[in-house]
Amino acid sequence: MLDKELLEEFAELKKRNDAVVLAHYYVEDDAQDLADYVGDSYFLAQKAASIDCKTLVFAGVEFMAESAKLLSPNKRVLMPEPTADCPMAHMLRKETIDEAREQYGDDLAVACYVNSTNQMKAWSDVCVTSANALRIVERLPQKNVLFIPDQHLGHYIQQQVPSKNIILNDGFCPTHEAIDVAEIRLLMQEYPGAAVCVHPECPSWVLDVADYVGSTSGIIERCVTGSESDYIIGTVYGVLHEIERRVAAAGDAGKKHFHFPATTPICPNMRRVTGQKVVACLRDLSGEVFVDQSTAEGARRALTRMLELAV
Ligand code: SF4
């Protein structure tokens, strides 16, 4: 909880720098509370591209802030915690793309999850998020789609879009991969009427026991609007803040209960982004994001194509 003095300073700094704060659902609660917009990767990318301001503070990990800078090159983009990175964003060997392009030629599209470096995006044909991946892959004209870097989201799309030949890479999110189906099953025994809601970055054996599979914002929506009183959630714990906020706003506080696996899924990278750091980066104008111009054009093209195809 930030004190009154710090909140006043924050309001003054925002005004002085013409700043808008974007935050992902996985960052610390007090950083979410300072944000003008809180959302998942897709929502935040759309906002970054459309908001009118001089300074964007991106409370998230590196690839998100870089995407914001690509989509708004004339804005100053600041990262409250510049060392917050996503390990999955680096899990690809260039040879994987080269080999697939050689094998399938023009009938191959490389679909790149936004959780990736700019270099990976630049090598790709289109970006996707977990909220729009199915729609975009279905709309691609090519039959063969190399999905990078996340094998689990790629596998989920493979199951949902059987008309395409989805080729998988071996990347993964360490936080979602660690979600243990045995712990989910224990919760299912304890709360037999609960809706099990999981993210497609989880392994397939976790998805197999779910009632709902969807993006972070999809899971939040399912929990807020569902008629069940108990929900078992298979994604990062940070979503609870937004779920509880919206459930309270709907007048359902105390009527719904949310349960996470015993080994709480916390993204150590996202959780280093705190409210104090949001204020500090605006005070010092620190953590400015610069993108490597050698990859910027290609990465921007893949991101822009995502925004066009997802409509
Ligand atoms: S939750 Fe997983 S995919 Fe998301 S930033 Fe953390 S490590 Fe990366």
Give the proportion of residues in helices: 40-55%
Tally of helical segments: 15
The largest sheet, given as strand count, sense and whether it forms a barrel, is: 4 strands, parallel
How big a fraction of the residues is strand?
15-25%
Query: Which residues form runs of ≥5 with pLDDT under 50?
Result: none
Radius of gyration: 19 Å
Q: Tell me, what is the CATH class of the largest domain?
A: Alpha Beta
Question: What fold name goes in the CATH topology slot of the largest domain?
Answer: Rossmann fold
Number of domains: 3
Shape: globular
CATH A-level architecture of the largest domain: 3-Layer(aba) Sandwich
CATH superfamily placement of the largest domain: NadA-like
Distance between the termini: 38 Å
Number of strands: 12
Bound ligand species: iron/sulfur cluster
Mean pLDDT: 96
Succession of helices and strands: HEHEHEHEHEHEHEHEHHEHEHEHEHH
Widest sheet: strand ordering = 2-1-3-4
Notable traits:
311 residues; alpha/beta; Rossmann fold; 15 helices; 12 strands; 16% strand; globular; binds iron/sulfur cluster
What is the structure about, briefly put?
This protein has about 300 residues and is an alpha/beta fold. It contains 15 helices and 12 strands. It has 3 domains: about 5-85 and about 270-290, NadA-like (Rossmann fold, 3-Layer(aba) Sandwich); about 90-175 and about 295-310, NadA-like (Rossmann fold, 3-Layer(aba) Sandwich), CATH 3.40.50; about 180-265, NadA-like (Rossmann fold), CATH 3.40.50.
